[in-house]
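Write out this protein's structure.
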Amino acid sequence: MQPERTLIWDGCVNVRDLGGHPTEDGRTTRFGAVVRADSVRALSDAGWDALLAYGVSRIVDLRLRSELALDPPRELDVEIVHVPLLQIDDEEWAEIDAIFDAQPDAAGSTRAVYLEFLERRRPQFAQAFAAVADAPEGTVVVHCQGGKDRTGLVVALLLRVVGVDVEAIVADYALSGPNLSERTSAWVAETDDELERERRRRIGSAPAEAMVAVLEELERRYGSVREYLDAAGVDQATVDKVRTRLVE
């Protein structure tokens, strides 16, 4: 029987193993290699016990430095690698926001902004990819705040480069929408401004068609995700390490 991909770690709501996905060459991604999550700093003591019992050896934290400052670290026998994926100044955020707001719907906004992130932060995506590749033996957890956007893009690169098809990657990504729906609804309810409420609904969504469009466009521009990673500075040895880790 195949293990459960969805993991119950108390305090988090968006945790799943990347194992069990078939690849285009007839293999399968390995359980216990990489787990995606929302911020593990929200875990209860029982949640941390579950994380440690899962064999986690490294946590790759994609959050901003300002986000880290809001929750003190725990003393754990787990290596933490911080890769602030979107360390962007106010002027650049204003540009990103304008791109987001100019799109007609949530899928368009998500697609446009994800592609901007991938282009503007290629070195940071390369660092996150390498942080997974170079991890010690054991499970690697990749997380940001909600485990949807930054984590979703890093996971899409990881799965695509080992040969998981786009449909499976998108199905995994789209699970974040319902998983985070309660938090998103609470965030939306915090403002009385209807325009801002709609904007928050868009930000909180995980439209499957957006991730399809992102991967298709990335492969149109570069030829493949592997070639995107090459342009970002990821060498073949690092890609091989990811493939060895992730694929049985």
